[in-house]
Structure formats: structure tokens, C-alpha cells
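Milestone M4 deliverable, item 7.
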Amino acid sequence: MHRPDVILTALRKSLFGFLFALACLVAAVSPSATEAAFTNLETQKVVYGAPWEPIGFYPIRAIDSGSYYAQTLVYEPLIKYDAAMNIEPCLADSYSISENRLKYTFHIRKGVHFSDGQELTVNDVDESFKLATSKGSPFRGDYKDVDGFKADDADTFSVTLKVPNAALLSRIAELRILPARLLKTADQGRTFLSRNPIGTGPFRLANWESGLELVFVPNEHYWAAKPQIGSLIWRIVPDRALLAVALNRGEIDIAQVDPESWESVLKANKQIVLERFSGSRTVYLGFNLSKPPFQYKKFREAVGLAIDRQKLIAHLYDGFAIVPTSDMPKGSPYINPAVKTLPFNQNLAREELLQAEKETGTKEVAFKILTLRDFQELAEIVSNDLDKVGIKTEVEIVEYATLRKMYLQTGRFTAFIWSRSAGPDPESGLVWGKNGPLNFCHFDNAEAEKLLEEGRYPSSSAARHAAYDHLQSVLASELPWIFMAQPDLLLAHSERLQNTRKAGQEMTGLPWDNPLFNAPNWQIK
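Output delivered:
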């Protein structure tokens, strides 16, 4: 039997309070809290707390969020996003685009060295592009319009296209440059780089104790301004209540926190500062459009109408989130303000459900919702709302790798709750394209396919905006997903930690919700 929202929320808050009290009791037996905080200050250490650790540092295999965040500390691309989400030079000190937009030329920065002291060459760039575009790369679709790439000379690298592609720069900004000498080995460097990254980034990995912590120190060979902290410790604290306690006691300097932790534990501590960024991660309820009952739009509409998303956000996010109308970040200039989400209307949901049952001959709608533990409470509230209109559901919690590999990639599911982090560029063929590797819902819509092409190959900036405006309307109408919440990125940190946010980032957010995006600029006062 599904419990009412109010009971769920009360139990959730009581459980959190119990865990917090228990965590305080456990932490109280440790005499090292004050000493640890003092040591951190004296040695210029910054301790970042997270409930998970990276899978690895091999960019085309370890593509989970934790690995992505860690990789940005040690690797760099030719070009990158700045604090205002504009593209700027990085390992290329300049670049140019031909008048017909079919050739991109990058001038490799001189005097750049990898963390092992070896000098960066154009050959490293060439081999890194080969890896990213190889058959085994999950990102190869990003480069389907590339006709070729080559080293023009010792300092110049060029990429030629078959047709102009408006999204190419954003993809190159995510392409990590790795040592060619490792990429030329039998396994293309996978075994070594997974645990021993060698990059040109501001930090290098000094130590990794699985399940405990990773230690990053400034890369002594870094070509730009070196980090001003002595080391960055990535401490793994699997329980969010314990993570909040550790931050509250000064054992951790900075962590991404949930609204419950902030409101219940950290807000009262005047030595803790909260940085609130516009989020780019969208939590959604997705359907398998190749299976009944969700082959039928009326069923999807009934589900969307039955869920009180505003109430859900108030209960779970304490106002630190919005109900999104698409999977684009709310700070994106491509958001279409005319698109509206389905209203909460359970009476209309029942009517839609009855009509769908008559049209399809279906007697009763029942299905399983797969999700991760992070979204369990959200899934239970969704399940309870659906039960009120006569839709029976069962929530099943699975691990990340299991959900992705055993269910989503094989199509062995009816519905699931997950999240997607979107980048600054609106190109989304990986998700909404018919053959997109992240199109787990089997969304196949001719109009959307046409709009994706128009956005990828626009005749003008206005045409690109028009294409994505229309695409958002199509998604809102066809409902392959019900967009549930777009949470803010909340970083809580000790007041002595400075430069955790740059001007304007509360509106633009951080690329891919990366909490370590500003880490090279952190300082301890």
C-alpha cells in the first residue's frame, strides 16, 4: 500500500534527524576533528566530500559524473568553457574557422608539459582525436560530420568537416588531450590511464585509496597559473547524513549538498557558506515508447497530469529546484518560454486514462518504475500520486551500472526515473535522435529528427534558436519524458575557503553541474 505524501515527508524528516543524531554520536568519539581542521588550514589542504568516487580516468570508458568531475582536474582540451559559458583557448592558444565553416584550425600552445614532464606535441592531439572518434568511443557520434583531421605542422592541427556543424566547438571543448605514447600501446592506454592519469591539467593524482579518498596535488609542470592550495583531497563519504556532519564539524571543507542537509544541519552554522548555482541536471520519468501502455500518448498524458510536481519539489527540494519544461538548463539562452508543462489535474488524468483504456482495450494500467537510491523518495511520491488515479506501480531500486547496462541499454523496462546533465550547447542528438546512444526511451519522431538536423546545421543563429524552440514544443507534446525537477547545484563550504564562485555563475551555473569547475581557483584565507 502506498503511503500519503504527508506521512512520507514526515517519516523522511524523522529518519534524517535520527541519522544525523547517530552520526553526531559516532563523530563525537573521534578526537581528531579540531586537529584535522587546523592541519588543513596549516598545510593549505582542501577536503572535498562526495558520496561516490570516480570509476576511473580513461575518458571513453569512465563516463559517469564522478569520473567526469575528477578528469577535469587532470586533463584539458584544446578549447574550454569560461565562467560565462563562452568558448576560450586552452591547449590551443588560438583557433580559426574558415569562411565556409568547413575547416577548424588550432594553433597548439608552446611550452605545455604533461604532469610527468613530457612536452605536449601535435601528435598527442592527433592521437586523442583518433581515440574520441574511434569505433569504441561513446562520443564518436559527436564527430560524424568530421571528414578528417591532421597535424598540418609541428604547431598546427586542423579538422575538416563534410558539412558545417554548429555544435562542433562544444564537442571539442570536452575532448581530453592524452599522451600519444600511451594511446599507441596495445590497449590504447586504458589499463594505465584508468588509475594513473597523465594530463596537462592544473592538478595531478598523487594517491588513490579506493573507497576512502583520492589525493590531488598541483601539477608542478602546469603551463598556466598554478592552484594556490597545497592539495585537494576527494574524501568518499557514502552516507549523506555523515557527509553533512563532517562538513559541519570542519572535517570536510566543501561538498555538494542536498536541500535537506542544508536546511536541517548546516544552515545554522555561521561558519558554513552556501553557494547556489543554477542547475543543469534534469530529473525525469522516462517511458519505453516501444512497449505498452506507453506506446499510446494518452497513457503518457494521464501519468503527467497525475503527478503534483510543484508539491514534490516543495517536499524534496525545499524550493531549491524548478519544474522544468525541457531538459535544457534554465539558464540557457535557448529555453523556449512559450512551452508549458502539463498541469497537475488528477480528475483530467482519470478521464484521459479511461479514454486511453477504451481506445486500446486495456483494462488496467500497472507498471514498474526502476530508479537509483538517490531518487527513491521521489519515485515513491510519484507512485503514490499515480495510485490516486488508478495507475498501479511498483518502485524497484537498482544500482547505477545495473540500471544502465541491464535495463536501459537492453530495453528491458517500462518506466524509469533518472537524470540527465546538459551542457551549454543545446545539441541533443545523443538523447533525442532516433539512433542516439542515450535515447533509451526509443523516441522516434520524424519532426524531432528534422529539427535536430536544423539545429546541428543551421543557416543562421536565428534558425538555430527556432529549431530548438520547436523541438522543445515537440517534446512537451509527445511526452517521451515527464520532466520532474531541475535542482539547483548547492555547494556548502567553510567560510575560510574563497573563490568558490565567479561573477555571474549563480545564473549561468557550472558546465555539466561540475562542483570542481572552479577548484583551480580555490584559496584558503
